[in-house]
Structures are given as C-alpha cells and as structure tokens.
Specification:
Elements lengths: L27 H7 L8 E7 L17 E6 L11 H11 L4 H5 E7 L2 E6 L4 H10 L7 E2 L3 E4 L8 E9 L4 E9 L5 E3 L8 H12 L2 E3 L29 E3 L2 E3 L10
Parallel strand pairs: 4-8, 9-10
Antiparallel strand pairs: 1-2, 3-4, 5-7, 6-7, 7-8, 11-12
C-alpha cells in the first residue's frame, strides 16, 4: 500500500478564487467588525470563512456561509478568584526574583479555568515548579494538545498542557506558542514521562518539534506520510485511497449522482 499524502504546499484542485456560496465580498476587517462574538479585550487573530476555511468545492460541510472571527481570550487582571490567586502566588514564590515574570507572559481566566501562557524556553522550569512545590503539587500531566492559528503571526503553533494536582484537587493549564518557521518547544518528558506518546501525537498531527524527546516519531500516521493533517492549511480531501487493490478517488473528485 502506498500513502500519497499531499505535502503542506499542495493546494486543492479548485481554483483559490472560486466563488463561495454566501460570500459577501467584504474585506477581512469588515467581516471582523460584523462578527460580535468576541469579548471585549479578546485578541482577534483572523477571520474564518466556512467550516474549515476551504474555498471552492473542497468544503462539503454545508457551512459555506459561516463567517466567524477567530479570537483568543485576553489577559486577566488579579484577583482571579477561587484558588487561582493562591496558585499563582505559590508559583511566583517558587520562581524567585524575576523568573516568574520572565517565564509567564500572560494569565488568562476564561470560563472558570486558569491558563498560564508560558514562554517556551521556560516551560520545563515552570512545569517542574508546579510538580515539586508542596503548595502546588501538580503530579499529573493529562496530555498535550496542539493548536494551529495560521493568522497568528509569529506564534502560529500552540501546545497546551492540562495539569492535575491529586494532592490539592486543582487544575491548571499551561500554553506555549512557537512560530511556524521555528516550531521547537522543549519536551516535558523529563518532568512528566507520561507526555511521551502525547508529544509524539502532537508532532505527528501539527509538526511541533519537542526538543529533548527520547523518540520523536510519528505515532498514528505512517512514517512516510508528508505533512501534518490537523493543521488548518492542510488540504481537505485530495488523498486517493487504496483498498484491496482498488484505487478510490479522493472525495472532491468522486462522481456526484444528485
């Protein structure tokens, strides 16, 4: 069996300027103003058209008229509420001097959850402090999730780590960003060995390179697969499939009978 995956530079067969049903022809700024879903203080990083941002015949979702501003929650000022203030104070005490302000670039409380946006070079130190400090004791990393914001210039790739303190029954989330041109983030394998397979999966689907990982190889896609399928710029369809000797055309090239 062969895997004829498109590379990241491959575009769907449809012309990039093909008309989208419901496309009003407004520019990006006007579309952003029309979408009122963002909260005050949120950071808009782009405008999404359709369900997957696909132009032409590739979007078969039925959401061709959907227009939505892609925004990220803005920073939150203290007090944060609940145990969040105590958690942040304990972490600041565990990172003496200017280490805390150098490591944590933003604190976000959104929908009752606390997220610490950490600069990537400081990630292992922050994670170890969260694990080892008696007042924190986040013993368990629940996984690694990748996110791709192609319009978030200079930080297109994000890695998200949800942590759980079994001792104190608390949760916190670490989020780290990296530019697409330099997709390197330090591995947390030395702090949380359970991130082994999670970081491999995030690398497989998003292309984030976790420096220091003991064996950063694909875990789901075949080794010779080109590209990273969960990136927003990865083509939809366009991948022929071989099944029991028959070659099935990709979804956007199959005959329609309706």
């Amino acid at each position: 069996m062969t895997f004829d995956s498109p590379g990241r530079d491959t575009e769907p067969d449809a012309a990039p300027d093909a008309e989208i049903p419901g496309d009003t022809g407004h520019d990006e700024a006007q579309l952003a103003e029309e979408d009122q879903r963002a909260r005050p203080g949120d950071e808009a990083v782009g405008v999404r058209r359709g369900m997957f941002g696909v132009r032409g015949t590739g979007d078969t979702s039925g959401y061709g008229r959907l227009v939505r501003t892609v925004s990220l929650p803005g920073g939150t000022e203290p007090p944060y509420g609940g145990y969040f203030d105590e958690l942040v104070a304990a972490l600041a005490e565990a990172l003496p001097g200017n280490a805390f302000t150098e490591a944590v670039e933003r604190i976000v409380v959104f929908r009752g959850e606390l997220t610490l946006h950490v600069r990537r070079e400081h990630l292992p130190r922050v994670a170890q402090a969260l694990r080892d400090e008696p007042a924190l004791r986040f013993e368990l990393c629940l996984g690694v999730s990748g996110v791709h914001y192609p319009d978030d210039s200079g930080r297109e790739l994000h890695a998200v780590y949800p942590l759980l303190s079994i001792t104190h029954n608390r949760r916190v989330r670490l989020e780290v960003s990296a530019p697409d041109a330099d997709p390197h983030i330090p591995s947390l394998y030395s702090v949380y060995p359970t991130t082994d397979w999670h970081e491999r999966e995030t690398y497989d689907f998003f292309g984030i390179l976790f420096d220091g990982h003991p064996s950063l190889t694909r875990i789901t896609m075949p080794d010779d697969w080109r590209g990273h399928p969960q990136r927003k710029d990865y083509p939809l369809g366009g991948i022929p499939v071989e099944y029991k000797g028959a070659r099935i055309p990709p979804p956007d090239q199959r005959r329609a009978y309706s």
